[in-house]
Amino acid sequence: MLVAVTSIVGYSWSSKSIETPQSSVQHTEAKRHVSKTADDNSPTSKTASFSDNRVSQGKQVQTENLHGKAYAENLTELEGKTLLKELDEFWTLCQQVGNCTEQLAQLKSKLPIEWFELLSDYPKLSADWQVMESTIPLESVDSLEARVELFKQSAQEIWGELAHQLFADQFAHLDFTLKANTLEEVEPTEFVLHYQGLISEWEGKTGTLNAETPAQKYELAVSLLPNSYSSVELATIKAELQETYLDAEQADNIAVREQQVAQQQQTVMTYHDQLDQLKSSLDSQRSASHANWDTQEWNSYYQQQVTEFREQFFMK
Q1: Widest CA span of the chain, in angstroms?
Q2: What digits encode the pLDDT tens for the residues 243-285?
Q3: Fewer CB in 10 Å around end: N or C, the chain?
């Protein structure tokens, strides 16, 4: 199945590596600057410090966005990849401008405390999560359910109560993985019916599952087919899925593609079979007709035979 425990690792942390400024990233540092005077944020003092047009323009846009409650309200409504992108952009831009502390001070009273802590501590939390994610011992856990739970617990350990909002996409995908795993126990004749029920249940999350179009739903269904089904059962189910989700042209294209894949797989199998036969023959020669050859002479001959075989095989 495509949706397996590899899905957990597949959602690797995509956040940019954000440099942590000495004067702004720490939450305590932001607190010390909440009471900065209006002169520190005046247009004159700001524009005097930056001559680069791109940075100045970015500063103006960010300042406009952060005044009032609009930015704070918008931030708390985001989730998943959209939220992560917004946090990345906030820190990337404020570091370019050099006013992270000022921007955090403006937002402190407009954000719930847990959201302000997330925003102000984001660079450190992001770095901590990258370390944590790379060391989660998923391989040491047997069941898929336990692996999913371990991943969620690890995320919550770093990100706290907002982990569910930051990882909305990932958690939804993992929950779907667990649900889809039940298809392993479905009889072949019932697979399509159970799959349709599963998709209906997750209709609001099809974007996260990359299953919005009928063609994508077909591809997802094929990826979930149990390995325990026979080749005849698989062919029957695929035909039913194609009739359900694909038009005639799409079905023809898939048939051509599957034929190409099958041919490639057969070519690979033939290559390895013939290569194994050659190596077996060479081993026999080494112990018989070429037993008196020294190591260097034999290695040269062996490599030459293998190289010639590969060239001739792929020239066919």
Answers
A1: 93
A2: 999 999 999 998 898 889 889 999 999 999 999 999 999 999 9
A3: C
